[in-house]
């Protein structure tokens, strides 16, 4: 049972690579309660949602994904009203 938890954590760390800290991402955090992450290119929306909920303990309301010009897959996560994006951004060191 311990091995599956360790495998799941490494899997979550492989799915979510890092948080994006551009001006647009910070504006989305402040006004729209959204966070933006770079994720694994093969990850599906439900896998990204599960990984974020496990890693950061957030409640994701909606997830939109796209591939940017550099070829990185990004996930824009709309958080529920219970979770404040600025608090999570502060914990991640973005703000």
Strand order of the largest sheet: 1-2-4-3
Number of strands: 4
CATH architectural group = 2-Layer Sandwich
What is the assigned CATH homologous superfamily?
RRM (RNA recognition motif) domain
Instruction: Using the alpha-carbon principal axes, give the shape.
Output: globular
So how many helices? Answer: 4
Radius of gyration from CA coordinates: 13 Å
**Biggest sheet record:** 4 strands, antiparallel
CATH topological fold name: Alpha-Beta Plaits
Task: Name the helix and strand elements from N-terminus to C-terminus, one letter apiece.
Answer: HEHEHEEH
Count of individual domains: 1
CATH class: Alpha Beta
Bin the helical content.
40-55%
Structure characteristics:
disordered N terminus; 4 strands; 26% strand; 95 residues; single chain; Alpha-Beta Plaits; four-stranded antiparallel beta sheet; alpha+beta
Could you please describe the fold and organization of this structure?
It is built from 4 helices and 4 strands, in the order αβαβαββα. It has 95 residues and is α+β, with helices and mostly antiparallel strands. The protein has one domain: 2-Layer Sandwich (Alpha-Beta Plaits). It has a 4-stranded antiparallel beta sheet with strand order 1-2-4-3. Strand 3 and strand 4 form a beta hairpin. The chain is globular, with a radius of gyration of 13 Å.
């Amino acid at each position: 049972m311990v091995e599956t938890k360790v495998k799941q954590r490494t899997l979550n760390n492989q799915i979510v690579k890092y948080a994006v800290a551009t001006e647009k991402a910070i504006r989305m955090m402040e006004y729209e309660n959204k966070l933006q992450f770079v994720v694994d290119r093969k990850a599906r929306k439900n896998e990204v949602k599960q990984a974020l909920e496990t890693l950061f303990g957030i409640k994701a309301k909606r997830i939109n994904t796209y591939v940017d010009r550099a070829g990185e897959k990004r996930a824009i996560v709309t958080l529920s009203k219970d979770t404040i994006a600025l608090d999570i951004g502060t914990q991640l060191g973005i703000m």
